[in-house]
Amino acid sequence: MYPLFIVLNFRRWRNIKELQINEQIREREVRLIDVDGGQVGVVPIKKAIDMAYDKKLDLVKVAPNAKPPVCRIMDYGKYKYEMAKKEKEAKKNQKVINVKEIRLSPSIEDHDLNVKARQAIGFLKDGDKVKVSVRFRGREMGHKDMGREVLGKFTEIVSEVGAVDKKPRMEGRNMVMFLVPKTE
């Protein structure tokens, strides 16, 4: 079994693409970039690895598709740590938008509509999208205008906090509309 710190480090860095380092590089010649970013030129792989070991660093293949492949002398552990840190920072700044659904019927009463609208207002204030659907059953399919009226009333009630993202349209037996939070 592997020691715990190796397993934890693997989990932290598994999303970072693995690059070939040192003896994993199989090409005969590589274009070498020094620690400072200066180009050394095209050198045999053995000489490049020796130069990296002399500086107590790693030889990392950074552009495998180039002809010849581009390798850089760097501290690979430090590089992976920096990449993991950047990835974590990007994930932290990401905003996840959820879609909440509210179902109505074409013959909904005003009080029930207001209750559903208050729910939608709460979702919109939290920054979520709201999918409002009116479900038609049986003979109600002949009265799609009633569903459109219900969605119109619903839009008026939530107009202070939300705006229509996608206008009402039919999807099978449901009339669907999407609302998004208003940005001030």
TrEMBL record:
Q: Which family does it belong to?
A: Belongs to the IF-3 family.
Superkingdom, natural source: Bacteria
Q: Which Pfam families match?
A: IF3_C, IF3_N
In what residue span(s) does the Translation initiation factor 3 C-terminal domain sit?
97-182
What is the native source organism of this protein?
Answer: Anaerosalibacter massiliensis
Domain Translation initiation factor 3 N-terminal, chain residue ranges per copy:
21-90
Gene name linked to the record: infC
HAMAP family according to UniProt: IF_3 (MF_00080)
| One cellular component (GO) term of this entry | cytosol
* Keywords from the named record: Cytoplasm, Initiation factor, Protein biosynthesis
State the function annotated in the UniProt record: IF-3 binds to the 30S ribosomal subunit and shifts the equilibrium between 70S ribosomes and their 50S and 30S subunits in favor of the free subunits, thus enhancing the availability of 30S subunits on which protein synthesis initiation begins.
Q: Main localisation, per the record?
A: cytoplasm
In terms of PANTHER family, this protein maps to: TRANSLATION INITIATION FACTOR IF-3, TRANSLATION INITIATION FACTOR IF-3, MITOCHONDRIAL
Per the record, the GO terms for biological process are: ribosome disassembly
**What are the protein's GO molecular function terms?**
ribosome binding; translation initiation factor activity
- For this entry, the protein name equals Translation initiation factor IF-3
- Where does this polypeptide localize? Cytoplasm
> SUPFAM superfamilies from the xrefs?
Translation initiation factor IF3, C-terminal domain, Translation initiation factor IF3, N-terminal domain
* InterPro entries the UniProt entry points to: T_IF-3_C_sf, T_IF-3_N_sf, Translation_initiation_fac3_CS, Translation_initiation_fac_3, Translation_initiation_fac_3_C, Translation_initiation_fac_3_N
* Subunit text: Monomer.
